[in-house]
Amino acid sequence: MKPRLVVLTGAGISAESGLRTFRDTDGLWEGYDVYEVASPQGWQKNPALVQDFYNGRRQDVKAALPNAAHTGLAKLEEKYDVRVITQNIDDLHERGGSTRVLHLHGEIFKMRSVNNEELIYEIRDDIKMGDLAEDGGQLRPHIVWFGEAVPMIEKAAREVWEADIFVVIGTSLQVYPAASLLQYVKPGVPVYIIDRKIPEVGKADNLYLIEKPATEGVLELLNIL
Q1: What are phi and psi of 37, to 5 degrees?
Q2: How many distinct helices (H) and strands (E) make up the chain?
Q3: In 10 A of CB 35, how many CB atoms?
Q4: Distance CA 47, CA 53 (A)
Q5: Is 105 a catalytic residue?
Q6: Contacting residues for 196 by C-beta, under 8 A, at least 6 apart
Q7: Of 213, 176, 169, nearest to 191 (Cα)?
Q8: What DSSP state is assigned to residue 11?
Q9: 163 contacts 5 by C-beta, under 8 angstroms
Q10: CA torsion angle for 102, 118, 23, 64 (degrees, to 10)?
Q11: Which phi and psi (to 5°) does residue 187 adopt?
């Protein structure tokens, strides 16, 4: 049995592939107020703007390439049962070679009906207003917006509870409920935190802090493990 290595990743791991994060820019994301483009209220007010915004993000992700942090995590599958839990909506973990990836906040290459969040389709190009699901509902990005429930959080918490090693990469640990996952680590399980600026996590004997960008930090993690 390979030891189970559970990794929580945030925007910091994708930033080195050129994908901008909204937290870097005072609540603006590509020049938009984040609540205009990432909340149910924003969608109700101006759905066409929200579609355009995510259509743009989809093209950005298509053009981006996985970096050494993504491929490094995939390499760990040789020795570990690696489970990636990501807050990111891109597919760079999958393209980097990771085989078990759980997306907490949805996926940019999927869309769903506004009437039924279980009715999900693949999408590589743009979603337009007037594009309907088979139940007649307008199609929207399959993204968890601010103020919406995070359906995958319980599954993620179970993964963390079963971890033999837990790693956090490139997340500010400020977005809930994802940030609360740290509380599900069993006592004594080693926790590695990789970030160019380590978030407030307190001190503990099982805590290892690697204050580096994701690519350099994962390289260091590979050497340790």
Answers
A1: -115, -5
A2: 8, 11
A3: 16
A4: 10
A5: yes
A6: 12, 211, 212, 213
A7: 169
A8: H
A9: yes
A10: 60
A11: -55, 140
Q: Which two tokens stand for residue 174?
A: 């400020």
pLDDT at 21: 67
Q: Is the distance from CB of 111 to CB of 138 less than 8 angstroms? A: no
Please provide the average confidence, as pLDDT, over all residues in the chain: 93
| Tens of pLDDT, residues 96-144 | 999 999 999 999 999 999 999 999 999 999 999 999 999 999 999 999 9
What length is written for the chain?
225
Written as six digits, the tokens of 103 are: 């997306």
Which residue in the block uniquely carries the two structure tokens 């993964």? 159
Choice among 93, 103, 105, 142 that is catalytic: 105
Distance CA 145, CA 42 (A): 10
What is the reported pLDDT for 27? 55
**103: number of Cβ within 10 Å:** 23
* Long-range contacts of the stretch 35-38 (C-beta < 8 A, 24+): 35/146, 38/143, 38/145, 38/146
> For residue 37, which of 49, 20, 26, 27 has the smallest C-alpha distance?
49
CA pair distance 7, 20, nearest whole angstrom: 21
Six-digit token string for 129: 């207003």
> Sign of dihedral through CA atoms 4, 164, 191, 181?
positive
Q: Is 204 helix (H, G, I), strand (E, B) or coil?
A: coil
What is the SS3 assignment for 92?
A: helix
